[in-house]
Structures are given as structure tokens and as C-alpha cells.
Design brief:
alpha/beta; 60s Ribosomal Protein L30, Chain: A; 2 domains; 4-stranded mixed β-sheet; 8 helices; 40% helix; globular
Length: 280
Amino acid sequence: MRTVDVAKITEAVAKLCVDACCYLSEDIYEALVKGKETEESPLGRDVLGQIIENADIARNESRPMCQDTGMTVVFIEIGQEVQLVGGSLEEAINAGVAKGYTEGYLRKSVVGEPLFERKNTNDNTPAVIHYQLVPGDKVKIKLAPKGFGSENKSGLKMLVPADGVDGVKKVVLETMLHAGENPCPPVVIGVGIGGTMEKAAILSKKALLRDIRQRNAHPAYAKLEEELLELVNKTGIGPQLGGTTTALAVNVEWYPTHIAGLPVAVNISCHATRHAEVEL
């Protein structure tokens, strides 16, 4: 049995918050550069150039690439041979978020109660945390600050099996058409299929964390990802002001479901699709 002090998790989360907000991941950066080369609209190419320049400035000056530094979403995998010591894991994660956002001078955007008072918590806590027990003696943390310009344009639809592949495509396309240029395209789209209502939503969020250079391991779903990307890029929404680069990627994750159901969740993310990860 390996012991891990939760203080290490606090420090790791604090660093991930800053890294995710300031340093665009390599897969997204490469896709933006490629998009600029293939974009058919001159205005679209100009917008993509500005996005790339912004990412370069953010990295070189260690500054947030966007003023909306998001609500912190954490996926944490805990090995079954790990004993966590030193306090509460959830408190440690939230302490890391508070430390990262405060000491990293990141905008705090979380309100403590969603409907009536909506008072800012002033440290961007609490995070939205998804826990998973896995084999082994490691702790893996994936952190994604999710801005709400894109989050607000996401959606979920409870289809029936007869809707099939065409139904899934319709949900994704309608969600993107409704979103338009509001989520700061070119976007990355996470699609969750199967499970239950809440499982599909979690899958769609998790899909956004996958390297966009990697396709789904299941050949049929990999093909669906490519088909969805082609459909979305034919909408003409483009990089904010029209063009052929509406999305950089569509990542699909799936899970077994009930014989009577076909849940589909679509989680849209802006061109940054910020995420960072570490293994302890």
C-alpha cells in the first residue's frame, strides 16, 4: 500500500489551474495552425492567426489566454493501492483550486448558490469533481477550467434506439447551429452516448479531455467522429466570423445503456479547450 499526502494533491491542483489557463495544449495549438492553413475564408484565416498569436503571448508571459478562467472541473483517478493521508481529499482539491486561482491571479467566477443570492465565493471553489477508483498505486488528476460562453451552449437529448446514428448526428448538428459563433469557435465538441442522462453528460465532458489527435478506439465511433466533424465544418459558422473551420475536433465517448434508451449529450468547448493533467 502506497501513501499519498493530500497536501501533494493541493499543490498539484494549484499548478494545474495555472498551467491549464495559461498554456494551450500542443494538440489544440497544432490544430489551430493547421486550420489557418486550410481555412478558405480570408477573414477566418485572420481570426485564426489572432488566436494563435494570443496563445503565444499567453505562454510566453504566463498569462491567462482568456479572461474567463472558468469553473474548475476535476477528474481524479485513485489507485486502489493508494492510501490518502493528511486530511480530506475533497478539501485538498478545493484548497488547490483556491490557491491556484488566488496566487495565479486568475479570475474567480463561481457563485456559492446558483439561483437566489449568487454571491461570488472569491476563490473559484468549489470545483466539480468526478472520482474513479482504478487498479494500481497512482493518483491521476485531469483538470479542465470550463468557461461558460461555451458551456451555456451545450445540450442533452434523450433519444430512443430507433433514432440511431442519424438521430445522434441531428442532435450534434442542431446543438452547434444553435450555438453559432457564441462559444468562440473553432470549437472542440465532446459527445457522450449511452449510460443514463447524467452519465452521458459526464462522458461528453470527459471527451473534451482526450487529445484531439487521437480517435476513439472503436472503429465505428472513430468513423462517427470524422463524419460529425465534417458536418459541423460545413455549417459555415467558421472561426467566429464565418468560414470552414467551425470545429477542430469532435470526440465521442460511449457507455452501455438500457434497451429502451439512447442518451446523447453534447458539450461544446471554445478554441482553447483548456486542460492539464498530472500523475502522482
